[in-house]
Amino acid sequence: MREYDIVVIGGGLAGLMAAAAATKRGKKVTLLSLGSGTLTIGGGIVDVMGYLEGGIPAATPSAGLLQVGAGHPYKKIGRPAIEESIRFFKEICEQEGYSYIGNLDKTQWIPTAAGTLKPTCLVPRTMDTTELKKADKVTVLGFDALKDFYPSLIAKNFKKIPAFAQKEYEVVMIDPKLSEGRDVTALDVARWLDTEEGLASCIEKMRNVIDSGSVVIIPPILGTRPSYAVKEKLEKALGCHFVETASVPPSITGLRLRTMLVRYLKKNGVRIVEQAIVAKSIVEDGKCVAVITEGVDRERTYYAKSFILANGGFYGGGLLAEPGKVIEPIFNLPVEAPTDHELWANYSLFSSEAQPFAKLGLDVDEKMRPLDANGKVLLNNVFVAGRNLRGYDFSFEKSGNGVAIASGYQAAMSV
Amino acid sequence: MKKHHNNPDSCTACTVCIANCPVTAATRKFRGPKMVGPTLERMRLSQDDIEPSLEYCSNCKNCDMSCPSGVPISTLNMLARAKYFKNRKRSLRDWILSHGEKMAKLSAATPGMANFGMKMSRGILKKIGISDKAPLPAYASKSFSKLFKNLKQTSYPDKVVFYPGCFINYNDPQVGMDFVAVMQANKLEVIVEEGFVCCGSPLVVNGFLDEAEENAKQNVQILKKWTDKGYPIITCCTSCGLMLKQEYQELFHIEGVAEYAKHLYDADEFLLDLHDQGRLNTNFGTLNEKYMYHAPCHLRAQGMGLPGVELLALIPGLDVQDADAGCCGISGNYGFKDDKYDISMEIGSGLFKTIKESGRDTVVSECGTCRLQIGHGANVKTLHPLTLVRKSYEAYHK
Ligand SMILES: Cc1cc2nc3c(=O)[nH]c(=O)nc-3n(C[C@H](O)[C@H](O)[C@H](O)COP(=O)(O)OP(=O)(O)OC[C@H]3O[C@@H](n4cnc5c(N)ncnc54)[C@H](O)[C@@H]3O)c2cc1C
After folding, report:
1. Residue A341 binned pLDDT confidence (cut-offs 50, 70, 90)
2. Contact across the interface for A187 and B18, Cβ inside 8 Å
3. B68 CA distance to ligand 1 centroid (A)?
4. Which ligand 1 atom is the nearest neighbour of the CA of A277?
5. Residues of CATH 3.40.50 domain(s) within chain B?
6. Measured in angstroms, how far is the CA atom of residue A16 from the centroid of ligand 1?
7. Helix A252-267, helix A13-24: angle, nearest 10
C-alpha cells in the first residue's frame, strides 16, 4: 500500500499552508482537493484581526490577538505559532517572487472598489498604500466597459474619509478596447496586461491621461500571475505608483496567491489529487488509518500516518447544516449547536455583534486535534485547520485568511 | 456531493469557473462557463433560450474541476448544445469531425490512399471549416484490431478487457500494442471485444447526443457483461475513460453504468493498483532518459491524481517532469475547427512555451489528441506512458 506521512483534505488556504509547512518539515504529503477553494472568490488579502467584539477596530492585528476570547482559534494556536506562521507565509511569497508586505504590529487600511477602507494585515505589493498616504493628489483610473469599478464613486467616497478628505482627486478613464463579446471584468483587463502587446498598448493609453509622478488607484488588474513584472514595467514606463483596490469576485489577488502556493507545493513534491471528494474515514482505536474518496466511478482509499482536515466551513463543504444540527461529514466529529435554529443567527441588521451561526465549528486543543464536549481528544492523528474551526466569525472580525494560515501551519507543526 | 446530479441551482454564482476557464482566457467571444452553463440553464428550464457563445465551450472540464459546489458545468453546456441542434441543420464539418469512427471504417480498406487523399484534400476540408493548419491525425496502415488479431498472446488465468477507443484503434495502434505487451509482462491476458464502438465523446461535443446515446447503450451492455463476470476494463485514452464512467452518467439514463464504472480503469492507475497489491512486475530496466509530462484535463477531472507520473517514477533512471501548464487547447476535435484553431493554439501557448523552455524533446501524455496538439504546437515528439513502461521492461532483459 502506498502510505503517505500526511494526507491534507481540502485545497483552500488552510490546506495549502498545512501542506506547505508539512513538506518544509520533510514530510511526504498528499493533498486531496475539490474545487479551487475560497481564495479565488474571497481574495489574497490576509486579514488577521480587524475588528473586536462590538465592532471596534483593533488598533493593530497584534492588539486584536490579545483580546480574543478563550474559544477563539487564535487562543488555541498561541501568539508564537501565529507569528511563525506569518513569517513562514511571507518567506514562501518572497521565495516565489511575489512578496507580501505587512506585519502583526500594523493595521493596513486598504482601499476597496466601493471607495471605502478596509483593515487588513498582509497584502501583495500591488496594494502598497505608502505613496497613496503621502500624495496630495490622487488619480483614480477606470476602464471603459469595466463593471464593478466606478472611479467617480471611489473619489467621492474617499472625500468622506477623514484621512483622505484633504487630497485632490482626478478621475480618468482609458478604453482597453475589450468590449467585443462579453462584459468586461478586472480579470479580462488583467489578462490583457499579461500579454506583451496588451501591456504596451495599455502603457500608451495611460500615458495620455496620467502624469508622471502620479499615485494611481486602479482595480486589481496588474496581471493574473504571481509576479510583480506587470506592476514594475508599468511603473517604470509611466513613472507612477499604482495601488490596486480590493474588489469583487473572481478575485485576481486570490488567483495569484493560489497559483503561487500550488506551484510551490508541486515544486516541493506534494502530490495533489484534484476532484477528490473525501466522503468517509477509517478509524481504529482513536486513530485515523485512511480516508476514502467517492468518485463517480468508485471509492479510493488514501492511507497516511496523519490527516489534516481543512475542508472549509458551511461554504466550502466541511460543515453541513441540517435541521437543528450541524454535521462534519468525514469523521462525524461533534459540532455543538443550539437545537433551536432561531438562535443560530443574529437577526438585527448591521449588528455590532458577530453571527452565532458563523462561529459554529469544530472544537480543538492547542495542537488542533478535535475534542468532544468534555474536552477529550477524539482522534490522535487528525488535525483541524481553517474555516471549519469553532469560535470565530471571519467576516465580522476580519480574520479569515489569517486563521487559515495560522491554523494550517499549527496543524502541520503538530503532526 | 456526487457529480452527476446536474442541478444548476447548486451554482452560487461565485465565478471561480470563469477564472479557471481556458477558453474564456483565450477569447472574449465566449461569455464564460458560469453564464453559459448554470445561469442560462435555469432559464432554459423554462424557455427555449439560445446562447450564441455556447459553441465556444470546448468541454475541457476545467470549470467542473474548479467548482466548489460540484456543478457539472461543461455537461450542462453539452446538453444545451444538443438541445440547440435538435431541430437545426448540422454542418458537414461537424458531421465529419464527430464521426471519426465511420470515416476510419470507410478508409480502412486503403489507409494509404486515405492519408494521401487527406493531404490532397486539406484545401477542401478548409472550405468546409476544418483548419488547414490543425494537426489532423493520419490513419495507421494497420488498425489496432488487425494487429491484435495477428498477435500471439501467452494465455494466463487472469484476464483484462481492453477498450481501445477510436484514436488508438485507427490512428495510434502502437499504444494499444504497448499496452498488451505490458499486460503480458504482468501475466495478464488481454481481451478485445469487437462489438465496442466509439465512446461518443466526439459526438457529444458537437451536439449529436442521440447518436452518442446509441453508442453508449451498445458499449454499456458489453462493458457490463464483462465486469459482471469479474473482469476489469482498461482504457489508455483518458477522454474515453471519462466518457464511459462519468459523462454517460451525467448525460444519459442508462442502467448499469455505475456498476461497471467501479471496475473501469485507466491503464496507469490499474498498474499502480497492481503495485499496491504487490503484484506489479517491477523488473524495470534503467532508462536514462528525460521527458516532459502533460496531464490531460480529462485525466485531472477523474479524481485520481496523476497515476502516469507515479507509475513512471518507478522506472530507474527515468526523469519525467510535469509541465503543469494547463490545457493544451485541442479538446478532442475543437482545435481542428477553422474558427477555433487560433483559440486552441492560444490556449496551448503556455504549455508549448513551458515545453520548449525545458529543452526536452519528447513529451509524455495519456491523451492521443493532446499528443497531436503538443507535437504540433511545441514541435516535439510525443509518447504514451505505457510505451516507456514497455521499453523499461524490455531494457531489463537486454
Ligand atoms: C466573499 C468572501 C470574501 C472574503 N474576503 C476575505 C478577505 O478579504 N480577507 C481574508 O482574510 N479573508 C477573506 N475571506 C475569508 C477567507 O476566504 C476564508 O476564511 C479562508 O480562505 C478559508 O480557507 P479554508 O482553507 O479554511 O476554506 P476553503 O477556502 O473553503 O477551502 C476548503 C476546501 O476544501 C474543499 N473540500 C470541501 N469538502 C471536501 C471534501 N469532502 N473532500 C475534499 N475537499 C473538500 C473545498 O472544495 C475547498 O476547496 C472571504 C471569504 C469570502 C467568502
Report:
1. low
2. yes
3. 10
4. 42
5. 290-396
6. 11
7. 30
Chain A residue at shortest CA distance from B27 = A181
The rounded Å distance from CA B248 to ligand 1 centre is 31
Range with the lowest mean pLDDT among A387-391, B124-128, B277-281?
A: B124-128
* CA A149 to each of CA A111, A113, A144, A192, A217: distance values in angstroms, whole numbers, following the listed order: 12, 6, 10, 17, 11
ipTM above 0.90, yes or no: yes
- The CA radius of gyration of chain B, in Å to the nearest whole number, is 21
| pTM for the model | 0.95
Query: Which CATH fold topology does A3-100+256-414 show?
Result: FAD/NAD(P)-binding domain (3.50.50)
Question: Distance (Å, rounded) from C-alpha B174 to C-alpha B367?
Answer: 14
* A182, A184, A248, A302, best to mutate vs chain B, most B CBs in 10 Å: A182
| Residue of B4, B20, B70 lying closest to A36 (CB–CB) | B20
A/B interface, count of CB pairs below 8 Å: 115
CB contact under 8 A, A180 and B29: yes
- Closest Cβ opposite residue B303 in set A41, A187, A277: A277
CA neighbor of A280 nearest in space, from A263, A293, A262? A293
Residue of B nearest to A180 (CA): B28
pLDDT of B213 reads: 98
Q: What is the pLDDT of residue B70?
A: 87
pLDDT score of B46:
57
Contact yes or no for B304 and A300 at CB 8 A? yes
Task: Please give the span between the terminal C-alpha atoms of chain A, in angstroms, as a whole number.
Answer: 21
- Say if residue B4's pLDDT is above 80: no
Q: Measured between alpha carbons, how far is A135 from B83 in angstroms, rounded to an integer?
A: 58
Cα B27 to Cα B61, B78, B136, B260: the distances in Å are 17, 19, 23, 39
Distance between CA A44 and CA A259 in Å, rounded? 11
pLDDT per residue over A67-76, tens digit each?
999 999 999 9
Contacts for A80 with CB less than 8 Å, ≥ 6 apart? none
Query: Which of B268, B196, B278 has the alpha carbon at shortest distance from B234?
Result: B268
Could you please state the CATH topology (level 3) that the domain comprising B290-396 is classified under. Rossmann fold (3.40.50)
The CATH number of B8-87, from 3.20.20.70, 3.30.70.100, 1.10.1060.10, 1.10.10.10, is 1.10.1060.10
Please, where in chain A does CATH 3.50.50.60 lie? 3-100+256-414
B14·A36 Cβ contact <8 A: no
B30 neighbourhood in chain A, CB within 8 Å: 181-182
Other beta carbons within 10 Å of B230: 8
Please report the atom of ligand 1 found closest to the CA of residue A13. 25
Show the ligand 1 pocket: residues with CB < 6 angstroms.
A 9-15, 32-35, 37-39, 41-43, 45-47, 276-278, 310-312, 315-318, 386-387, 394, 400-402, 404; B 68
Residue intervals of chain B classified under CATH 1.10.1060.10 are 8-87
**At B390, is the pLDDT very low, low, confident or very high (cuts 50, 70, 90)?**
very high
Ligand 1 closest atom vs CA A386: 26
In terms of DSSP bridges, do strands A382-384 and A278-284 run parallel, antiparallel, or are they unpaired? unpaired
| CB-CB contact of A8 with A308 (8 Å) | yes
Region A16-38: what's the mean pLDDT? 96
Q: β-strand A271-273 against A241-244: which pairing, if any?
A: unpaired
- Name which of A274, A293, A298 is nearest B262 (Cβ-Cβ): A298
